[in-house]
Amino acid sequence: MAELILQALYSGLLNGGVYALMAIGLALSFGTMRVINLAHGELVLLAAYMAYVVESRLDLSPLAAIPLAMAVACAGSALVYLLVARIRKNRELNSLMLSFAIGIIITNAVLLIWSGDIHSTGSVSLQEAVQLGSLYSMRSELYGFLASLVLVTLLWQWLAKSWYGRAVRAVSSQRDAAKLMGINPAKTELISFLVAGLLAGCAGVALYSSSVIQPSLGHALTVKAFIITVLAGVGSVPGVLAASVLLGITEALTVTLWSSAVQELAGMLLFLLVLFVLPNGLFGAARRRA
What we know:
Blueprint (H helix, E strand, L loop, with lengths): L1 H32 L6 H19 L7 H19 L6 H24 L4 E2 L3 H4 L1 E4 L2 E4 H23 L1 H11 L1 H6 L4 H26 L1 E2 L3 H16 L4 H21 L5 H15 L6 H6 L1
């Protein structure tokens, strides 16, 4: 039993890395514009289908699709921003409806182009088992976790040290004051959406490399990314990684010790529990006290 629990913890840790890649882009755009992009999961799914196309049509590794997936996800993310930016009244509510509609359009487009079949990678190298002591995982899961650590760290450093990163934080904190400092809020928001698209592209390739995809998956990815964003606390990059790992471990332990049928329920119960104990999220309260 002890080895089984250790394996579940390890699997949950690796899954949490992929969750972090999916959620960090949504957290970035939400923190900048206070707009929840309900099409974010569909953009991740679209990037995953780019990996499927590259593998099935060009007979290449899904990893070779990363540039294409990033380009497609960036284009979609920029389109969402350009449409949302035109909203002048009730932006929060209207942007929810608009991005939800875009997500539905993407889902149906994927369904029309690639049908409703389930797809997964056939790459032997990515599906190969990797052993660390008594723990096992697919090579793709390990790659996805390492990629999430690198990308989250780079994003954290970009927000902390680069000019545009500081501009993003300034706009998210106080838009009007940022204007007085010479920052163009519209340009800064577009950059944050483009960065979110880059991260969504990487998340899509990681998702296809380690799991199965189908057209209806996009909405579930958005919900999971939103749960992680709220758990982390708005604006907390390390919090997104911590919340993703916590959610991944919770789901893995639920599947191992109980049933896969209640995996999603366990995630929602964790969400409600954390919000009840820490209403500002795992990292939000500490940041506000500081």
